Amino acid sequence: MSLVIASQMEPDFNNTLAQHPSQPTLIGVAEDEPWRAAPDADILLIRPSPAWLARPAARPNIWPGRLQWVYSASAGVDFYPDWLLDAPLVTCGRGVASEEIADYVIAAIYAQAKNLEAVTVRSRAQWAQAPLGRVSGTTIGIVGLGAIGTAVARRGLALGAQVIAVRRSSVASGVTGVELVDGLERLAEQADHILLSVPATPATRHLINERFLRRVKPGAHLINVARGSVVDQDALVQALDDGRLGFATLDVTEPEPLPEGHILYTHPKVRLTPHISSNYLQVRHRLLEKVQEDLSRFVRGQQPSDIVDPARGY
Fold first, then answer.
1. Pick from 255, 257, 187, 192: which is nearest to 222 by CA?
2. I need a labelling partner for 61 at 20 to 30 A (CA). Which of 132, 144, 240, 313 fits?
3. In the chain, how many domains are there?
4. Is 103 in a helix, a strand, or coil?
5. Which residues are bridge partners to 25 per DSSP?
6. Whether residue 155 is found in the same domain as residue 291
């Protein structure tokens, strides 16, 4: 008997997944309550959607039903309720969009360093020399050296930047040339560009706070592609206004979207994008390949990749 997969993904994605050699049966889910597929499926393939924000606080009595496995298309699982992790196995799409996000980060670094729009001339009268910033020779500090941080580190080193990082594990970075530094404050003091690429957990909430921002190198550029909860936004605005921090590129905020009129929409030292760095529609094929490979492992009795640790929340 084939596995039944209840999927929140697009029809083309589901149709291709149904062609997997294990011949799974794909069924749809109620978009307003996707968890209600639990009694009818062996695997639930989910994505961050508005329905998950409106989920019940208490675990539904049908959960986890007959589910053997919940697969999140996103790398983070902070979007979902805590009771999601009561399923026997939860995995995530970690690494699928890391190359796209790394490209976004490097684009943000160059946009800040070179700022070609500011030096573009539109008349002969404006023709004058203007200094440009540099990328080569600067220091990129990475907070969280997972798939995204590693992809940025490789790019940064190739561009001639020094790359330093802090990570939860003391294990070597795996990228030759990256220096692991002792603590956030040390990183803050050295880095010209500071990348946040950590998961959203209680331990990382407001990791970037007033204390950290007091230690940043003057003129530093903060880039957040993690989650909005990692940054104390009030402290961030204060540091920008005080001139302690030079600029911030934010692809994530808390909440999302920000309320109308929020200062981050119009702050002159902020580049705000609407959580698009993953370019997720362009990497659906990578997610599909990952899901297919993990499904092959699962049917062979092997563990799929990127199992979420309920204790850590990622």
1. 192
2. 313
3. 2
4. helix
5. 4
6. no
Ranges assigned E (strand) in 181-263:
193-196, 221-224, 247-250
Same domain, 107 and 81: no
59-102 pLDDT, tens per residue? 999 999 999 999 999 999 999 999 999 999 999 999 999 999 99
- Are 115 and 252 in the same domain? yes
Give yes or no: residues 162 and 260 share one domain: yes
Give the list of residues 6+ apart from residue 186 with CB closer than 8 angstroms, or none.
166
**156 and 265 belong to one structural domain:** yes
CATH of the domain at 92: 3.40.50.720
pLDDT digits (tens, 9 = 90+) for 12-67: 999 999 999 999 999 999 999 999 999 999 999 999 999 999 999 999 999 999 99
Catalytic residue annotation: 227, 256, 275
Query: pLDDT digits over 99-156, tens only?
Result: 999 999 999 999 999 999 999 999 999 999 999 999 999 999 999 999 999 999 999 9
User: Residues of 231-246 as b/e, b for ≥16 C-beta within 10 angstroms?
Assistant: bbbebbbebbeeebbb
Provide the residue range defining the domain that includes 81.
4-96+281-299
Q: Quick one: 92 and 118 in the same domain?
A: no
Environment class of residue 113 by beta-carbon count within 10 Å: exposed (0-12), middle (13-18) or buried (19+)? middle
Q: Is residue 291 part of a domain?
A: yes
Strand order in the sheet with 193-196: 178-180, 162-166, 139-143, 193-196, 221-224, 247-250, 270-272
The Cα–Cα gap between 310 and 314 comes to: 7
- Which residue, chain included where needed, has tokens 């002969």? 124
Residues 137 and 259 in one domain: yes
308 assigned to some structural domain: no
> Which tokens is 98 given?
């890391």
Helical H segments across 61-139, by residue range: 98-114, 116-119
pTM (global) more than 0.70: yes
